[in-house]
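Entry type: protein chain
Record version: 2
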Amino acid sequence: MSQMSYFKKKGDPYIFAAGMGLIISLGMVAWILIVILAKGLGFFWPRDLVEVTLDDGKKYLGEMWEKRDDYDRHETQLKNGNRDLYGIDFVWMDDANIVSSEYPEGAFTFERMEYGNFYGYIVAVNVENQAVTAVDGDIVSKAYDAFELAHQTHDEVVETQQEITDLTEPLTRLQREISLLEIDRADRTEEGRALLERYRKEANEMEQAIAEEYLALNSELEKLVIKDRSIFLSVRTTDGRNKDLQLSHVVRFFAPNQMGIFEKSWHYMGKLWEFVADDPREANTEGGVFPAIFGTVMMVILMSIAVVPFGVMAAIYLNEYAKQGVVTRFIRLSVNNLAGVPSIVFGVFGLGFFIYFVGGSIDQLLFSDKLPEPTLGTGGILWASLTLALLTLPVVVVATEEGLLAVPRANKEGALALGATRWQMIRKVVLPNAMPGILTGLILAISRGAGEVAPLMITGVVKLAPTLALDATFPFLHLDRKFMHLGFHIYDVGFQSPNVEAAKPMVYSTALLLILIVILLNIVAIYVRNNLRKRYKSSTF
């Protein structure tokens, strides 16, 4: 009994419990990362296609996806795709009902812009009303040639459409001005009638000037569209159904059962790059997440630019200028309590204050001609960033205060004794030595802000943003635009997707990418902080 009492006094049981808690926590984090890595990265590997025949005569062609064992029942999940024909992407089969499983070399996977993957066999290649079958030669090489021609034609269609848009844009803007004047009943005044008459005359002249070129471009566009639709593959499913696949709507197609390890590795790298660099498609369950990556990083940068100066100024005032007393202690208590406020409350505040009050007031002053359509009086990346800046402000204030308190008092008094003003002492002595603490606050703010979703849902984030907040159009940085975010993308794909089963791998992949981005941003901040620690060795950090 005395021995046990001795160990309790020594503290060994508490040290052991703390160590076990740390090991369990690290193990849980490692397990989560392993699951995300396995589920996320494995999604891009091209799986072989298996043709399964059941005892009732049904045949399925697709990818082996998952196995499930329940006591005496063993089931296999097959991704059979072809959603436009079957209505579902996955089917569960009892292993006892499987008669045979084969891996046909002629089976192809077609990744499409819509309806997900299609699995089948190429029957014929159709190019501008000319069909090529397997009897006529190497149908696979003909299919790849037609695929290149189809995408080249589709690019020409897009370019021609852009030319038409650029040609008619001045006329469209002028017609919009005429419509706004007519809505405002400008014809009730002599000046308004003169302006309307002048605009209508300019619109007629402009329309006549571009009419010939517009008709030529429109005629060319019609020919290209007809050519685009005439390039397709005739394919057959394993149960004998036929389907025509327009090749311009096919992202890629390949025969995985004929691919070696190097071909599959090259395909895997291409899919990874597509995931990082392309736009999403198929209700965000396919394609890439580049707009979400861009929106997340841009929002974190804007949030950091907003929160650090205000957080540092607040901490400096509380420590160096404010008289320490009841009011100061109350302010510190309030700041600490703000860190525990639910994030959705900050979102509601951002909606009411930033969007409706500030943005609505700016619209009334600067963009009244565009009302009732709001410019800044609606959600956007600026208001979302400022909302998250408020959310993370307590973290920055507390971390900065700790950094300021760690600066040796002798350094401050020495600077003042040498004739420096209080501001000079803060700028030359306190801030440089407290910079590691400030960066610690920034790291914590980035870690929390990058993963928040609830406030963003009502302050500017959307399922799909057609244009980025930063582009080559003046003024280049468009803070009023809505944006995509990786955290919201995970929520949307995982819980709002019409095809949840097919969206699971995208959830894991996006979650892994979000973790990597947060780690990368933190590594950069930690690297800068460590360099500052070495530079200012007088700091106790």
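Comment: Residues 139-183 form the longest helix (45 residues).
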